[in-house]
Amino acid sequence: MTLDDLIDGPGLVFVSTPYTHYKPGLSCAAHDAAQAAGALIRMGIRAYSPIAHGHMVATHSRMDPTDAQRWMDNDRPIFAMARALVVVKLREWKESLGICEEIAAAETMGKPIIYVLPSEIGLPRELDDREAT
Question: Which one is predicted more confidently, 115 or 132?
C-alpha cells in the first residue's frame, strides 16, 4: 500500500511521529506532527495525529503531555478505527517508544504501515531523518 492508495479512501489514517524525546522539544514535535497531518489532509488523506491533538489538549488543560499511558489509553479507540498507520520518519523516529508500540499494534491488527520521509509529503528536507535518506 502507498499513500496514493489512501487518497479519498474510507476512514482515517493514524499519523505516527516522535514526541517525548524529540530533540527540538515538545512544542516542535507537536508543530511538526501537525504539519505532517496537514500535508496528508491536503493530499486528500483523512489523517489523525495524536501528537498534534494531545499536545494542544495537554497544554491548554494543565495535563502532563508526557503521560504516555494516559495518551495511549485515549488514542487506542481511534487507532483501532484507523485503516492504516503512517509513520513519518522525522528525526529520532526510530528511538520513539510510542512509534515502536504503534508499529507493533498495527502489525498485530494487520493494519498496513506506510513509512514516509517528511520531504516526501512536502515538508522541509531538514526534518527528514538523515539515516533514512
Answer: 115
pTM given for the model: 0.93
SS3 label, residue 111:
coil
Domains in the chain (CATH in brackets) are: 3-132 (3.40.50.10400)
d(CA 43, CA 37) in angstroms, rounded, equals 10
In contact, 10 and 93? CB cutoff 8 Å: no
In sequence order, what are the beta bridge partners of 86?
15, 114
Alpha-carbon dihedral 120, 32, 112, 82, rounded to 10 degrees: -140
CA distance 103 to 85: 8
Cα separations in angstroms, 55 against 51, 97, 119, 132: 6, 17, 23, 26
